[in-house]
Amino acid sequence: MRKIRFLCIIVVLSVLTAAMQFTVSAVSDDEISAPSAVLMDQASGEVLCSKNPHEVRSCASITKVMTMILVMEALDSGKITANEMVTASEHAASMGGSDIWLEPGEKMTVHDMIKATMVASANDAAVALAELICGSEDSFVEEMNKKAKQLGMKETVFKNCNGLDEDGHVTSAYDVAVMSRELIKHRKIYEYSGIWMDELRAGKTQIVNTNKLLKSYQGITGLKTGTTSQAGSCITATAERNGLGLIAVVLGSSSGSQRFKDAALLLDHGFAGYMTYSPKTPEEAVTEIAVENGMTKTVKTTAFVNDRFTVKKGEEKNIKYSVRLPDHVTAPVKKGDKIGAIYYTENGKAVGEYPIKAAEDVKEITLKDIFSLVLKATSA
Fold first, then answer.
1. Nearest CA to 240 among 279, 267, 261?
2. pLDDT tens readout for residues 207-264
3. Assuming Cys at both sites, which of 19, 46, 162, 239 could form a disulfide with 123, CB separation 3.0 to 4.6 Å?
4. Mean pLDDT of 47-54
5. Which residues pair with 237 in a beta bridge?
6. Percentage of residues in the chain with pLDDT exceeding 90?
7. Sequential DSSP letters for 117-174
8. Would you kindly state where each structural domain of the chain is located, as residue ranges?
9. How far apart (Å, rounded) are the C-alpha atoms in residues 303 and 354?
């Protein structure tokens, strides 16, 4: 009888545990008040949960994520520098909505213009940067749309660089997550997106970030908010904990506070249900392989797995690896040549592939080499 009771307790505990895991792994549409949302893994780009992710919508100043991608690329390439002066044009100074009240002809560094764009969501600063890089906002917007196509953003069309409401200026929660993931590859953007309060014009202009998660959410690193009458309240939020990086996108919320609540809920779901797994280099991948027609009989191999991928908590035990190496290789072999590979899978699904390479050169043996070896052997 005791055994039966004990087995019943075990079964009940197992069912409760499974139910708890199911609760962690799913966020219902009803829990997210916004009409469209996405939670994406930064490392892989995998969507962990979503609500109407491909619904075409306005996105307000979330547009500036793409603007900043092109700005960061221009900085990386040396096309512009952080200390370079930007002169505000009549067009840039005429922008409405959020701005820093640039005057025509006013000069400000690229660094300060980026800060104004990311922290104060300044429409005038965004246009000034666009004109610096491409000569005009129209030319810059063309580049924005080209980049969107390169990234596979199928629901996105940009009509301006700052996100002011305009017919046909649309995107989707999924596309916003994709471009957010691209922007944060430029780690320097965090130096701007993480600012809470700062100043411009030698202290004459104070700016405060509209992303309130910076003050309330553990691990938040950015990224951008946006609000217009067409778009509603929007946010793309990036956060990191224990090596796990997430992107939460919320479009069309009814209020600013609600967008933060939804974004925090998405991030909570991700951090509660997922973890980062760091695979190791198997010892059997570093070995020696027989060489045919080589000056030496074997070649040493080398492998280095320095990666991480995201898995559901509790599923790490289902991660397996296999090492595939041939019985032999044929000379010549050059150092760095791929000889085999290490494959990692989770529940049979491929999650990582890493090369096994030759650690040294092995020359092909020639008749001259054979003759030399024979001479050495006979003279010895």
1. 267
2. 999 999 999 999 999 999 999 999 999 999 999 999 999 999 999 999 999 999 999 9
3. 162
4. 97
5. 223, 248
6. 84
7. HHHS--HHHHHHHHHHHHSSHHHHHHHHHHHHHHTT-TT-B-S-SS----TT-BB-HH
8. 30-274, 283-367
9. 8
DSSP-assigned beta bridge partners for residue 311:
275
- What is the Cα–Cα distance from 248 to 174, expressed in whole angstroms? 10
Give the model's confidence band at 22: pLDDT under 50 very low, under 70 low, under 90 confident, else very high. Answer: very low
CA nearest to 276, candidates 44, 14, 30: 44
- Any catalytic annotation for residue 64? yes
**Catalytic, out of 33, 36, 58, 121:** 121
Quote the CA–CA distance of 216 and 262 in Å, as a whole number: 13
Give SS3 for 42: coil
Question: Among residues 33, 36, 61, 233, which one is catalytic?
Answer: 61
Domains 30-274 and 283-367 share a fold: no
What is the SS3 string spanning 326-346? Answer: CCEEECCECCCCEEEEEEEEE
Q: What is the pTM of this model?
A: 0.84
The counts of H helices and E strands in the chain are 11, 17
Task: For residue 308, name the pLDDT band (cuts at 50, 70, 90).
Answer: confident
CB-based burial, 240-259: b 16+ in 10 Å, e otherwise = beeebbbbbbbbbbeebebb
> Edge-to-edge, what's the strand order for the sheet holding 328-330?
319-324, 338-346, 349-358, 298-303, 288-292, 328-330
pLDDT: which is higher, 163 or 306: 163
Q: At what angle do helices 110-119 and 64-77 cross, to 10 degrees?
A: 160
Secondary structure of residue 34 in the 3-state scheme: coil
Superfamily classification of domain 30-274: DD-peptidase/beta-lactamase superfamily (3.40.710.10)
pLDDT at 96: 84
pLDDT band at 198 (very low <50, low <70, confident <90, very high): very high
Question: Is the Cβ–Cβ distance between 147 and 70 less than 8 Å?
Answer: yes
Question: Mean pLDDT over all residues of the chain?
Answer: 91
* 51, 64, 147, 357: the active-site residue: 64
Q: Does 61 qualify as catalytic in the annotation?
A: yes
**CATH (residue range 283-367):** 2.60.410.10
User: Closest by alpha carbon to 178, among 151, 146, 147, 143?
Assistant: 151
CA 12 remoteness from chain centre: 40
Buried b (16+ CB within 10 A) or exposed e, 287-311: bebebeebbeeebebbbebeebbbb
